Amino acid sequence: MIDEDRQSAILNRPKAELHTHIEGAAPPAFIQGLAKEKNIDISRIFREDGSYDYRDFVHFLSVYEAATSVLTGPAEFARLTTAILTEAAENGVVYMETFISPDFCGGSDVAAWKEYLHAIQDAADAAQRDMGITLCGIATPIRHFGPDKAKLAARCAAETAGEFIVGLGMGGDENQGRQGDFAYSFDMAREAGLHLTTHAGEWRGPQEVRDAVEDLGVTRIGHGVRVIEDLAVVDMLIEREITLEICPGSNVFLGVYDKLEQHPIEKLRERGVKVTVSTDDPPFFRTTMRKEYADLMRVFDWDAEIFDQIDRNTMDAAFCGADTKARIRKLLEAS
Q: pLDDT category, 1, cuts 50, 70, 90?
């Protein structure tokens, strides 16, 4: 058991995460405030205590999209960016990658998408200056919107690839369609120099992860935890040096696992998979990076050496440019 001083040092160390969704990180009070400003009634998506209310993963997607409905322009996304980076910085996060959907930011129209990105990036630049947190974006096709809409999202990504938009990563309902249905979009992004990730192995089993790697050519997998059910796929991840963006609190909250003690993150790490830790949609799942670290210490007895390894995995797999990587590594290593 780690003593209290060492626990405190781990909780207070600088942190980096690779798997968040910009809309999903919206504090519920922020969304409620926007809805009130716009006279939009979305009270059904909140509990009495003000937190988000949903029954299961599919209902979660519905609540997520309802919350997103009040984010109607670039100015709201700029305010949202400031709100989520403020909360992340308060939990010691110095580097964050976030999924941003062109579908929700201008209806996948390239010109409108650029306006949204300009506003988001301005807010991110101010947060980096004022709070010391760096944000990079991953353009995100929504799987259950289908392959044709994904092509439009990928075109937006390709047109804005650079220091801020650094990757393409599919989200949405994993039970809709196949990974290979979206190969055209991922090929377009790859040709534009973007890094690639996709959600897989959260709700479907190990074959979904294999398909993501083989059909889309991704270097990271969002979640991926169910690979533990097929060690051949686990070993494929190790051989190909694929990194998993694991969100333990999300997986437990949504019922992929009943409790953290059943979560395979430690088994995957011990076998040699490159695992990282992220919060996914933190206010929806009532988590923070500080809480994730506390829970991993409590359940798996992770110590500073293991969190050092997590930091290395995270920055090795980060999609940002070399200069940003070097700067963030120094911040993490200083702890």
A: low
